[in-house]
Amino acid sequence: MQPMTLSRIATVVGGRLVDVLDPEAQVTQPAVFDSRETVPGSLFLALKGEHTDGHAYAEAAVNKGAAVALVTRPVGVPAIVVDDVLGAFARLGRFLLHDALGTAKVVAITGSAGKTSTKDLIAQVLPGQVVSTPQSFNNEIGLPLTITMADRDTDYLVLEMGARHIGDIRDLTRIAPPDISVVTNVGTAHVGEFGGRENIAEAKGEIVEAVQPGGAAILNADDDFVDVMRNRTQARVVTYGLAEEATIRATGIEIDGHGRASYTLVTPEGSAGVRLQFVGDVQVHNSLAAAAVGREAGLDVDQVAARLSEALPRSRWRMETTTRPDGVTVVNDAYNANPHSMRHSLDALAAMTRGRDQRSVAVLGRMNELGDDSRTAHEEIGRYAAGLDLDHIILVGGDEAGWMQQGAGSVGGKAVHLPDQDTALELLHKILRPGDVVLVKASRGVQLQQLADALLQPNPHTPDA
Q1: Cα gap 425→406, rounded to integer Å
Q2: Is 271 exposed, middle or buried (CB count within 10 Å of its CB: 0-12, 13-18, 19+)?
Q3: Which residues contact 465 (CB under 8 A, 6 or more apart)?
Q4: Measured between alpha carbons, how far is 419 from 42 in angstroms, rounded to an integer?
């Protein structure tokens, strides 16, 4: 974080210092909301959650070296007391970006799927010093927290912006107005909360309305809900995709045996070959968005292609691919799931085994927040998986897994419905053989990444275990 004195922070956020011995002491490290992550010089945020109150951990944070805690009441340690911690933190983030970080440019990313992978690609394509959203910290807490990770040497801030309601992204852009906005797609993630794709598009489009003068809106030309957002911005519009009319596009796409794409990157200035290290054909679109951002940053097509080809996955549980000593490959894509991302992950699994002496095994769990469309969506995914001619389809959980099984069965597909991860793991230990590729995917709340991790441990039923 760009160093700031406690007295200056208090003035910026509209708070008062309590139990502070030295008002000129400085916060020098990023903010934290988990006292266990505190380092000397941190700013600790005392946030109230459903099950815990951060105020109870302020003392522990200060004992670990936090310079001060941002609180709504005195807690017996150096603190800045405000009426609303989140509101105060937003004011601090806005101040840091506009008054303390010099000329750092903001690249803002939203979409129903692919935000995090696109963010990781963009962060590795851009030149100079880049700070990007850690994990998926893309809300009113994570966005200003990311800003506190930057300093005067930062050239670019790459910020994910998520939304659960119309107006959420507008609020985030008030903290960090984007110089470049990227929209990946409009799918059905959170459709149960939004009430339809049209409302999701309305929310996501707020990010292009906020682009600063002289900036660019980078839009997916292959998604009709995104492409029409060009009518909602005064910014320069750059499109990407497979469509012939896209500004930045890919031709000659090929998928290798590890599910990684190679293609020719085509721009108005020329073309160059790209070989991605990310798994899944959906990464072609994500990388094209990153290419468009790199082009806006002044890189030529050869530089962009080289950086894309060198970029590595940074975020866990997103097509995270690990091969066991016995040759079984586990693809852990259990961070989140919706119908759009589920199809892409299943396509990647099929591509990794098609035409090869390898078996494909899909282990799928519930997709959350689909509202009234939940049963239909799960049945459709079951049918889709069955249509890919996968060798094994294992569905884990309650009603939603049963609906997927019914969908698979309706088109003659065979799928196994198991009640929990333990029974799924037991079955997998019995059926897996060297060379198999196992996809594990569900919404985050299902915690199916635990099953993926367990698959990477020695089989307790083998003689050598």
Answers
A1: 22
A2: middle
A3: 458, 459
A4: 44
DSSP H helices, 206-273, are 206-209, 224-227
Between 165 and 251, the more confident residue is 251
* pLDDT value at 444 more than 70: yes
∠ Cα 275 281 285 (to 5°): 85
30's tokens = 């990023």
Q: How far apart are CA 350 and CA 87, in angstroms?
A: 47
Longest dimension (CA), the chain: 73
Give 71's contacts (C-beta < 8 A, 6+ positions apart). Answer: 46, 55, 58, 79, 80, 81, 82, 85
State the DSSP H helix or E strand holding residue 220, giving kind and residue range, or none if neither.
strand 216-220
Q: What are the tens digits of pLDDT across the range 287-309?
A: 999 999 999 999 999 999 999 99
Q: Give the C-alpha separation, 45 to 55, whole Å.
A: 8
| Token pair belonging to 404 | 């997927």
Look over the chain and give the mean of its residue pLDDT values, rounded to a whole number.
93
Euclidean distance between CA atoms 247 and 309, whole angstroms: 20
Q: How far apart are CA 384 and CA 277, in angstroms?
A: 26
DSSP state of 38: -
> pLDDT digit string (tens) for 147-186?
999 999 999 999 999 988 899 999 999 999 999 999 999 9
- What gap in Å lies between CA 299 and CA 360, rounded to an integer? 40
Residue 182 C-alpha from the chain's centroid? 13
Provide the phi-psi class of 171: left if phi over 0, else alpha when psi is between -120 and 50, else beta.
alpha
183-196: per-residue pLDDT in tens?
A: 999 976 555 565 67
Q: Residue 1 CB: number of other CB atoms within 10 A?
A: 21
Distance between CA atoms of 122 and 158, rounded to whole angstroms? 8
DSSP state of 53: B
